[in-house]
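User: Round two. Same drill as before: sequence, then structure, for each protein.

Assistant: Same drill it is. First protein:
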Amino acid sequence: MRPSGRRLDEMRAVSIETNVSKHAEGSCLIRMGDTHVLCTATLEERVPPFVKGTGLGWVTAEYGMLPRSTTSRMRREASAGKQGGRTVEIQRLIGRALRAGVDRVALGERQITVDCDVIQADGGTRCASITGGWVALRLAVNKLMKAGDVLSDPLPSPVAAVSCGIYAGQAVLDLDYPEDSQAGVDGNFIMLGTGDLIEVQMSAEGKTFSRDQMDALMGLADKGVGELVALQTEVTSA
């Protein structure tokens, strides 16, 4: 029933390769099917002016898509002189999501910037960016802890995200582009490893959805995030 032949509750093949950038304090390449995102974390011993003097740390994010990450070449936003609205919305989402999993007191007055660059897109780039972005953040924080620069772990729980939707009348997990482009309902579920929700983005694309369908999507999201968190934990504790 699904174009990929996957079961309704089956994720795309997911892999996370860590330490792919020798200069970044934390880095990974996450692959969710044919969506590939390079995530790097940069540590700076400074914070934005609105945080300075509070004793709190800050985590922020930037997001972009390479010109040939899609089927036709996109113009670089730098050449246009400004970021598009979609880019701004997604990078704000990534920053919010990652900060939700950070103990900013434990992090101390320093900033970590997570850059998410989409190399290849086939649906779910924001979810892959959040999931891979947390891995890069975790690796950067591991270095802080190893150096003794933080006294307690600022990342008490992983943060991961997955898409779910109603495709051909059925609730499905982890939409690829063919499904996303035709789904009657699609959503992104961002969660802590504890199962607590950080953010849910749901929208009907020309067709409404019921409470039962919403519950079904939530159940699929629980399953998908659980699998992602297990992989995040595996690759960051090796």
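Second protein:
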Amino acid sequence: MRPSKRQPGEMRPVSFERGVSKHAEGSCLVKFGDTHVLCTASLEERVPPWMRNSGKGWVTAEYGMLPRATGDRMRREASAGKQGGRTLEIQRLIGRSLRAVVDMQALGEVQITVDCDVIQADGGTRTASITGGFVALHDCLKWMEARQMVSVDKVLKDHVAAISCGIHGGACVLDLDYVEDSAAEADANFVMTGKGGIVEIQGTAEGDPFSEEQFTELLALAKKGIARLVDLQKMAVG
């Protein structure tokens, strides 16, 4: 039995609350159990210098954790003068994941920045950020569509979502919370599209190496979880 009393293939409760930011073109408060992330998507009528006059747009992301997102207060990275390596790695992952389902030519020469701020952390902050970030991005594009700037169906090629899997107590389990993640023999993050395309897999053995058979089982769990997340995204955005 898992510490949370969940079954091996059972996810934490997942919810999306849209329109939580008055000023952002798209926003979503996503909850994976006790992991809560505020995702906002902001439209800027500019692109990075290296993309000027290309006719293509750009989607990027930023990620951060509030000081009391965890049990002990963390120092704000701004006060330290630089972002940590983990933060940079996660926000690049979020950006890559969202760009995988966006047609930059159809977007036009604008930039959408998706900010993911962790309000409360209990494992899986990057997977929640990607999954909720997609909803915020979708709503930003709907805002643009209402102003005849784009067609959402042409810009978004698919849904994208992410989930964690791992080996805990010798068993392959889906959607690790902090207690499981901190004691897992192996853990992995899977980013996949609604059609089943693989965007990225991050997997690590924390102790003994895991087998190909175990990886196949983790992948099967991830596919199941992401299919459920995509269904929830579709229900959220109508």
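Residues 145 and 151 are 6 Å apart (CA to CA).

User: Perfect.
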